[in-house]
């Protein structure tokens, strides 16, 4: 398991932490996981910091779900006022849901490259539910079942999505209708790989329903570039009668800096776009935007209702997120700070035998960790050492990629230059410690 607690570091933990872990294990069972060799407990958050029970501040360079920052006052205010007023489901008319949907739709380019082209929205509680619903719509509208994903993709926790998520491991079998293609790394002809998968489905009597991709390919190791490389993939998918589903749970809401949505960096207009809990800064609201003809065709024969999806309290949070993104120009900050951070990490990597390629878009970076003395050899052990040494310095990151050898740096969007400098100082110390064989 990437960046997982296995109990070997328990002796170094405070007694209260060990007891809480034991209680958690008894209450929640073995399927749940904790981060870090020595798990950390938090009692509050503010901006880009989380605080432990002793009041120590940890710089959050990992959590994308509180997209506009932990406990943002505007989000807190709108949610509190709405919770004190009304919270009900979407079978009653509420202006807030409709107004939010209209505002959200205006930011998307679904089914057309013209900004603001009318789409339609459907709301869920989580990104997993959104991807599950997108898959249902794709299968219904195409009459096909085949799905193409990348080699280490992760798309959700439902039964249908687990079999589309190779990153969950061999213990979770892929569906017979699923075809896996190599991630779009250097040297991979990604369009040709997708075309091969389409042909292989057809040879086995299956047709393509959808190509489903995280627009940053984050589980595959963060592979965002070059912008535009997904355009011919979309053409191949459409030529085969399939739908292009852009999974924006990771890439959306200004994360990439240059655009509000990751797919827009590639100049494409997906048929369906799915979004996750960054929509509500961590409250359970997610959803999709799709071509109206798809939703109309689906709705003729399939009712959709989600008791909690799009409830007024979560819609208030989602509205507040769009307010803050605009008022504080957080996409602009993601671009400026992300560029500064990527450039600085690239300079560190050039001088370090333990860091390799640095990739990213906006405030989402992936950094290869390699075995010293063997350039190009992935080193999950050194990556784990970097992640855990950063945690010791109260900086939170994680790891990703098929080998667990890629540092995952993905802070809340208010992460500014001073926070980047704090991060960089700690990273420089950590890679020196790793080189001193204190792994």
Explain what the structure shows:
It is a single chain. Helices cover 36% and strands 15% of the residues. It is of the alpha/beta class and 439 residues long. The protein folds into two domains: 40-68 and 330-435, Aspartate Aminotransferase, domain 1 (Alpha-Beta Complex); 73-327, 3-Layer(aba) Sandwich (Aspartate Aminotransferase, domain 2), CATH 3.40.640. A hairpin with a 2-residue loop joins strand 1 and strand 2. The longest helix is centred in the C-terminal third of the chain and has 21 residues, at 330-350. The model has no long low-confidence stretch (mean pLDDT 94).
Major sheet summary line: 7 strands, mixed
Strand neighbour order, sheet with most strands? 4-10-9-8-7-5-6
Q: Radius of gyration, rounded?
A: 22 Å
Mean pLDDT: 94
Alpha-carbon distance between the two ends: 18 Å
CATH architectural name of the largest domain: 3-Layer(aba) Sandwich
Low-confidence stretches: none
Number of domains: 2
Key features?
439 residues, alpha/beta, Aspartate Aminotransferase, domain 1, Aspartate Aminotransferase, domain 2, 2 domains, seven-stranded mixed beta sheet, four-stranded mixed beta sheet, 12 helices, globular
Short description:
The protein is α/β, with parallel strands linked by helices and 439 residues long.
List the helices and strands and how they pair.
Blueprint: H1 15-28, E1 44-46, E2 49-51, E3 57-60, H2 73-83, H3 95-105, E4 120-124, H4 127-142, E5 146-150, H5 159-162, E6 178-181, H6 190-203, E7 208-214, H7 231-239, E8 243-247, E9 272-275, E10 286-290, H8 292-301, H9 312-327, H10 330-350, E11 355-360, E12 365-369, H11 380-392, E13 395-396, E14 398-400, E15 406-409, H12 417-435
Helix pairs in contact: 2-9, 3-9, 4-8, 6-7, 10-12, 11-12
């Amino acid at each position: 398991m990437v960046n997982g607690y296995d109990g070997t570091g328990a002796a170094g933990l405070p007694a209260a932490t060990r007891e809480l872990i034991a209680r958690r294990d008894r209450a929640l069972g073995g399927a749940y996981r904790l981060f870090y060799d020595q798990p950390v407990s938090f009692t509050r958050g503010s901006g880009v910091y989380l605080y432990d029970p002793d009041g120590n501040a940890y710089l959050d360079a990992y959590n994308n779900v509180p997209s506009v920052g932990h406990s943002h006052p505007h989000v807190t205010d709108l949610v509190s006022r709405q919770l004190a007023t009304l919270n009900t489901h979407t079978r009653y008319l509420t202006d807030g849901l409709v107004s939010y949907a209209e505002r959200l739709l205006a930011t998307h380019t679904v089914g057309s490259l013209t900004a603001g082209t009318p789409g339609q929205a459907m709301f869920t509680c989580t990104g997993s539910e959104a991807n599950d619903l997108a898959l249902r719509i794709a299968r219904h509208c195409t009459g096909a079942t085949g799905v193409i994903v990348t080699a280490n993709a992760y798309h959700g926790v439902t039964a249908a999505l687990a079999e589309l998520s190779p990153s969950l491991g061999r213990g979770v079998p892929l569906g017979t209708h699923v075809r896996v293609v190599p991630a779009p790394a250097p040297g991979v002809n990604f369009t040709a790989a997708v075309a091969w998968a389409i042909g292989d489905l057809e040879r086995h009597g299956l047709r393509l329903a959808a190509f489903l991709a995280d627009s940053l390919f984050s589980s595959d190791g963060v592979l965002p570039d070059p912008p535009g490389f997904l355009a011919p993939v979309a053409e191949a998918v459409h030529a085969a009668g399939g739908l292009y589903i852009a999974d924006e749970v990771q890439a959306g809401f200004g994360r990439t800096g240059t655009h509000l949505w990751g797919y827009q960096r590639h100049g494409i207009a997906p048929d369906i776009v799915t979004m996750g809990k960054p929509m509500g800064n961590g409250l359970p609201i997610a959803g999709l935007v799709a071509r109206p003809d798809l939703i109309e065709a689906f709705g003729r024969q399939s009712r959709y209702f989600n008791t909690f999806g799009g409830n007024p309290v979560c819609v208030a949070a989602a509205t507040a997120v769009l307010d803050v993104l605009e008022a504080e120009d957080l996409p602009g900050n993601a671009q400026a700070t992300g560029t500064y951070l990527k450039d600085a990490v690239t300079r560190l990597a050039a001088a370090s035998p333990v860091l390799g390629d640095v990739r990213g878009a906006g405030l989402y970076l992936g950094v290869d960790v390699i075995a010293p003395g063997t350039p190009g050899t992935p080193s999950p052990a050194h990556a784990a050492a970097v992640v855990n040494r950063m945690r010791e310095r109260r900086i939170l990151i994680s790891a990703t990629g098929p080998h667990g050898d890629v540092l995952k740096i993905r802070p809340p969007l208010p992460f500014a230059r001073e926070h980047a400098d704090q991060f960089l100082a700690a990273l420089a110390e950590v890679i020196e410690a790793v080189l001193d064989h204190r792994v």
